Amino acid sequence: MTTIYHNPRCSKSRQCxxxxxxxxxxxxxxxxLDTPLTENKLKDIINLLDIKPIELVRTNExxxxxxxxxxxxxxxxxxxxxxxxxxxxxxxxVIKNNKAIIGRPPEKVLDILQ
Length: 114
Description:
- By secondary structure, the chain is of the alpha+beta class.
- It has five helices and four strands; from the N terminus they run E-H-E-H-H-H-E-E-H.
- A four-stranded mixed β-sheet has the order 2-1-3-4.
- It starts with a strand and ends with a helix.
């Protein structure tokens, strides 16, 4: 099973999903804006990605620039912010066999399918 944390309004997320569908992956599609992640789930995803929480933040989003840019924010607080404001989570995120990637560029998803 391959899981994609997907935002249908995002062109990169749609392109990544199309690649997964073309490869006939058995998919679980989670529209994370409609079904928000829990703090624990987001921590698990960040651990699978092997990144710092800030690396998953979309720092060009208006909410980030208006409320959080330039502030010193600890990792746990960043996770809470992303849970409260899921638009700030970079997308798409694809998980397969306990490996995860951020599908940017969308073709990067091919790395996880092998």
